[in-house]
Predict the 3D structure of the following.
Amino acid sequence: MQSKIEQLLNEVRQSELKTETELETYRIKFLGSKNCLKPLFAELKTVPNEQKKAVGLQINELKNEAQRIYDNFKEKLSGATDQKEVIDYSRPGEPNEIGARHPINVIRNEIISIFERIGYGVSEGPEIEDDWHNFSALNFPDEHPARDMQDTFFVEKGDEELALRTHTSSVQVRVMENSKPPIRTISPGRVYRNEAISARAHCFFHQVEGLFIDKDVSFADLKQTILYFAQEMFGKKTQIRLRPSYFPFTEPSAEVDVSCTICKGKGCNVCKYTGWLEILGCGMVDPSVLTSANIDPKEYSGFAFGMGIERIAQLKYRVNDLRLYSENDIRFLKQFKSAF
Ligand code: 2NL
């Protein structure tokens, strides 16, 4: 009898109940209405009187232990099923929110695609530039104010003076140095100026510059290219007007206006009642700039132009504060959802 009790106690203690079926089999065997402890209670009657109490206690202990172990495993198993994710496959899905391109990139892509249609390629270059590519090769004299700390961010690297590029003309100098005419390239990218941030100025903005170099390129080619661009960008009826201007790297130079996209030239508050909006600067590449990049100005001529992407975006989307472009306010960015 004693050894039977011990054997059952061992069996109970060594039980591993990992599934509902194992748990149920155990329950029937040790706790059910016909459990295997019942015969022990019957047998107790045959035990001599002086041992009855002690053996009775042992059987009771076995019964309690069997119940404890059952309860333990049952709790563990139900805890495990609680953690399991219950998936309702009939629920409608939660769609991923579709993002939007940044308006600056939308306009950038549009400008690129307009020029790609007439044979221009895209060139890119470093934002941290040396003096040669940002200034000297572009005919900036030593005393030019743009070389001043007040206008340009300078970076020191050993004894080398580097600067955050102030225009992407620096990329085009690199293209001229590394390839032979004919050259047709546009250079989009971020540029930096040391300015106090306001609605109308920022310490960085985005530019697209264009460069065309070949034999017999004339000012007429420049005008026709700019007209094509303006009409693709702002509509077929758009007109352009050129005003004389000055840049160190072009001669002659001009500022280009388009007929007001809002009032079509009649006069409104957007064009300040002039009928015209300024969109870019341009000119014939100065012969000294060609020479700096090892291109013979007697053999080749070219034109170049540069525009601010923020300015074009401002006219297309009527955004009147430059700071909106870099504040990452989701309410602003969401409005460009349908743009490509
Ligand atoms: C503006 C005016 C301009 C250029 C950029 C250029 C580049 C080379 C040679 C000569 Cl490599 N010129 N670029 C020419 C005229 C104007 O930009 O208002 N930009 C925002």
